[in-house]
Amino acid sequence: MVVTADVYLPEDSELTVQEVNLSGSTLYAGSFHLGKYCETINNEYMLCRQEENDPRKCINEGKAVTACTLEFFRKVKKTCLAEFNQYSNCLDKSSGDYAFRHCRKTQGVFDQCMLEKLNLPRPGFGYFCEARVHDTKRPKPLPEPKAVYPDATPALPEDAEKKPPRLGSRFYWMTE
């Protein structure tokens, strides 16, 4: 990709944030509760990405998503660590594709702990597929102006002679 001098690139200090250094099975085990816990922040970030079409303009929203994820896993560590580790370990060891079907018992124990201690119920089936309206405080970005090309071919004048087609109309079935 070619970058010219007028393109703004953020500095490393703007991009540096504490990473979520967790394994795939750990993220997979907490994914449903994490999605519910950080729903508004994730929606704000995705709305920004969709509206702006430029990830550089959504750096702060991305940092907020990472901070929310870290906060969620810290709360899980304080309250439901044993249940979560058991569930994550089951997902990791029971199948090669982290299938939930092998770990329903440990999932139930973890879900019960999350409900009792963090008051965070597991979202129902299809919850994340439902349509929602997201209310945001960000101003709506201005629409891009329509491109104007000065060298466009001018249209025919209205009083120009329009001869009938030489070989007839290709819409011959529509003449009746």
UniProtKB/TrEMBL annotation:
What is known about what this protein does?
Answer: Accessory subunit of the mitochondrial membrane respiratory chain NADH dehydrogenase (Complex I), that is believed not to be involved in catalysis. Complex I functions in the transfer of electrons from NADH to the respiratory chain. The immediate electron acceptor for the enzyme is believed to be ubiquinone.
Its GO CC terms are: mitochondrial inner membrane
What superkingdom heads the lineage? Eukaryota
Give the location in the cell: Mitochondrion inner membrane
Which key words are in the record?
A: Disulfide bond, Electron transport, Membrane, Mitochondrion, Mitochondrion inner membrane, Repeat, Respiratory chain, Transport
Q: Where is the signal peptide?
A: none
- Protein name per its UniProtKB record: NADH dehydrogenase [ubiquinone] 1 alpha subcomplex subunit 8
Higher taxonomy: Eukaryota, Metazoa, Ecdysozoa, Arthropoda, Hexapoda
Gene name, per UniProt, is LOC114241905
PROSITE patterns xrefs: CHCH
The record's region (Disordered) falls at 140-168
Source species: Bombyx mandarina (Wild silk moth)
Which one GO biological process term can you cite for this protein?
Answer: mitochondrial electron transport, NADH to ubiquinone
What's this protein's family per the entry? Belongs to the complex I NDUFA8 subunit family.
